[in-house]
Automatic annotation (TrEMBL):
Annotated GO MF terms: 4 iron, 4 sulfur cluster binding; 7,8-didemethyl-8-hydroxy-5-deazariboflavin synthase activity; iron ion binding; oxidoreductase activity, acting on X-H and Y-H to form an X-Y bond; transferase activity, transferring alkyl or aryl (other than methyl) groups
Highest taxon of source: Bacteria
Keyword Heme listed: no
Cofactor note: Binds 1 [4Fe-4S] cluster. The cluster is coordinated with 3 cysteines and an exchangeable S-adenosyl-L-methionine.
UniProt binding sites for (3R)-3-methyl-D-ornithine: 153, 300, 322
Protein name: Cyclic dehypoxanthine futalosine synthase
Enzyme category, top tier: oxidoreductase
Gene name tied to this protein: mqnC
Lineage: Bacteria, Bacillati, Armatimonadota, Chthonomonadia, Chthonomonadales
InterPro entries: Aldolase_TIM, CofH/MnqC-like_C, Cyclic_DHFL_synthase_mqnC, Elp3/MiaA/NifB-like_rSAM, F420, FO_synthase_su2, rSAM, rSAM_sf
Length: 380
């Protein structure tokens, strides 16, 4: 990776010319942008990319009515940045029953919701058959409502395959058959092993995360990608992360969206200062400029708060994310924001855009069709 000292003299005019021409930015240019002081200029260039990717809908900001479900907090990996997990045998460890999960999904459906984002820890007691039964049971009970199952981060999937002694290809085949619709991009943190060995030494490597997403895409499952910045990484690490996502997208085209979010240090084993809103806006803009092949970028209002997320809509974002309804991982680190549907739509309109609901695959929902309608059952 380049360093700032190794970069030949650049200018914002040079980079702007490339952006206007639709040319891909290099690692050196991305790194230079992380040091460029004028945020409004970055915002302008990021929005050029946003509008190029969405020429017919650049007046729209989408969101999805969904719910986060953390089915277990039991995890043996002990990531230093996580305040949510409980080690196996801990008195505060839990695994939700199917009935508890059904109740949460029913509450979402009653509010017109369509997506459950289901993630948990690496729980050694939960085998592949448990996951298959859960997915099939959810589809049997809520399939008529068009509920989309967007579930299990690469860390979970890699672990399930390992303890089941099967390949990732077979794992995705079985989970997809049971009802899995798509895969969230959690656990990416920073895709350099130097950083991962510091903050999560027992977790999958950067190559393993990338390969898991590659196998998901091969199986016909679309995924998102995330970046948790603001811990021990450098700007060079962030650029390497973005390049790895961009390279896999060139190969598979399987990423629907990218979501950068800042590390929340409270209650974790990494006592650091929380990244600033300035850093968030810069990271959003540089990510949009570098990821010219990932169609959507999503706000992280749960970590930044609604007002900063609203401002970030002018820094290249085109999606406000999920209503979530419930969030346990980030809130365990002391960061709690909740937003009702009406407030999400108000924030989008106040920023000068038209709010529009979507599915997990970013299909805009037809006007006049309630989001939980069986008409949408095959639109995941």
């Amino acid at each position: 990776m380049p360093t700032l000292q190794s970069i030949a003299p650049l200018s914002i005019e040079h980079i702007a010319d490339k952006v206007y021409a639709g040319e891909r930015l290099t690692a050196e240019e991305g790194l230079w942008l992380f040091h460029y002081p004028c945020l409004p200029e970055l915002a302008h260039l990021a929005n050029v990319v946003r509008e190029r990717l969405h020429p017919a809908t650049n007046h729209i900001v989408t969101y999805i009515v969904g719910r986060n479900i953390n089915y277990t907090n039991v995890c043996w990996v002990r990531c230093k940045f996580c305040a949510f997990y409980r080690v196996p045998g801990h008195e505060e460890g839990y695994v939700l029953t199917k009935e508890q999960i059904f109740e949460k999904i029913q509450q979402m459906v009653d509010l017109g919701g369509i997506e459950i984002l289901m993630q948990g820890g690496l729980n050694p007691k939960l085998k592949l058959e448990w996951y298959e039964d859960l997915l099939a049971s959810i589809k049997a009970r809520f399939g008529a409502y068009g509920v989309i199952i967007h579930a299990f981060s690469p860390a979970e999937l890699i672990y399930i395959a390992k303890i089941s002694k099967i390949s990732l290809a077979e794992l995705f085949q079985r989970l997809k058959a049971a009802g899995l619709d798509s895969v969230p991009g959690g656990g990416a943190e920073i895709l350099t092993d130097r950083v991962r060995e510091i903050i999560a030494p027992y977790k999958d490597t950067a190559d393993e995360w990338i390969n898991c997403m590659r196998e998901a895409h091969k199986a016909g499952l679309r995924t998102t990608a995330t970046m948790m910045y603001g811990s021990v990484e450098t700007y060079e690490d962030r650029i390497e992360h973005l390049l790895r996502v961009r390279e896999l997208q060139d190969e598979t085209g399987g990423f629907t969206a990218f979501i950068p979010w800042s590390f929340q240090p409270e209650g974790t084993e990494l006592p650091m200062e929380r990244a600033s809103a300035f850093d968030y806006l810069r990271t959003v803009a540089v990510s949009r400029l570098m990821l010219d092949n990932v169609p959507h970028m999503q706000a992280s209002w749960v970590t930044q708060g609604p007002k900063i997320a609203q401002i970030a809509l002018r820094y290249g974002l085109n999606d406000f994310g999920s209503t979530m309804m419930e969030e346990n991982v980030v809130s365990a680190a002391g960061c709690v924001f909740t937003l009702p549907i009406e407030e999400i739509e108000r924030l989008i309109r106040a920023a000068g855009y038209e709010p529009m609901r979507r599915t997990t695959q970013y299909q805009l929902l037809p006007l006049g069709v309630p989001e939980g309608s069986p008409l949408l059952a095959n639109r995941a």
